[in-house]
Amino acid sequence: MKLFSFWRSLATFRVRIALNFKGIKPEVVNVDLVKGHQRNLEFQKINPQMLLPALIDGDGPIIFQSLAILEYLDEVHPQPPLLPFNPRDRARVRGLAGIIACDAHPLIVPRVRDYLEREFKLNEEQRLNWIRYWIGEALQAVEVHLSGENETGRYCHGDSVTIADLCLASHVVGAKLFEMSVAPYPTVERIFDLCMKQDAFALAHPLKQPGAPKSVAH
């Protein structure tokens, strides 16, 4: 198995957590997004969208998009499970994950920030305001669900880690990278703190990856 990764990629962070949970140690190929290596023709053949993560697992097509990779890993390596068995429970977990991975995260990635600068001439402060707004929107929505629904337990759904927790952890780390407090979202903060006590989460943290700086704001 081969994982195309970059230390700062929050989407790849989710996948690293899942791999750790499953006890899988893939070959990691670094694609430096800052240096633009994702635009190299070699990588474009792997993922024409020029995004991370991407996963190669034996023969067959390359697997792309973090949520698709997470579900693939859960299907081919079912223990420990990262999705509940009950269809309604699975739908809730997917919905929570989607708030972050599908609605908020795509609006804060480097290619969007670059577009805002290039096409609309937004300066750094304006781009940060954009990023923090969309991070906050997702945090607020997830907090309302988690604090108000009986299905929430020690984790986002019950007392076992699910894909929703992987997405929550990546989003909170993203918030911290952009110097946002999560104190206004106490349920999110509680679950995040619990998650990060586990090696599967802690060892996957962006700042613990090869090439990462000791600290970073944004």
Can you tell me the residue ranges where pLDDT is under 50 for at least 5 consecutive residues? none
Estimated structural class: mainly alpha
- Compute the CA-based radius of gyration: 17 Å
CATH topology (level 3) name of the largest domain: Glutathione S-transferase Yfyf (Class Pi), Chain A, domain 2
Largest beta sheet: strand ordering: 2-1-3-4
Gross CATH architecture of the largest domain: Up-down Bundle
Main sheet attributes: strand count, strand direction, barrel closure: 4 strands, mixed
Tally of strands = 4
Per CATH, the class of the largest domain reads Mainly Alpha
Overall geometry: globular
Distance between the termini: 31 Å
Helix content: 40-55%
Mean pLDDT comes to 96
Number of helices: 9
Order of helices and strands: EHEHEEHHHHHHH
Oligomeric form: single chain
The domain count comes to: 2
Strand content: 5-15%
What descriptive keywords fit this protein?
218 residues; Glutaredoxin; four-stranded mixed β-sheet; Glutathione S-transferase Yfyf (Class Pi), Chain A, domain 2; mainly alpha
Describe this structure in words.
With about 220 residues, the chain is mainly α. It has two domains: about 1-80, Glutaredoxin, CATH 3.40.30.10; about 85-200, Glutathione S-transferase Yfyf (Class Pi), Chain A, domain 2 (Up-down Bundle), CATH 1.20.1050. It has helices spanning about 10-20, 40-45, 65-75, 85-105, 110-120, 125-150, 165-175, 185-195, 200; strands at about 1-5, 25-30, 55, 65. A four-stranded mixed sheet has the order 2-1-3-4, covered by helices on one side. Helix 4 (about 85-105) packs parallel to helix 7 (about 165-175) and helix 7 packs across helix 8 (about 185-195). About 35% of the residues are buried.
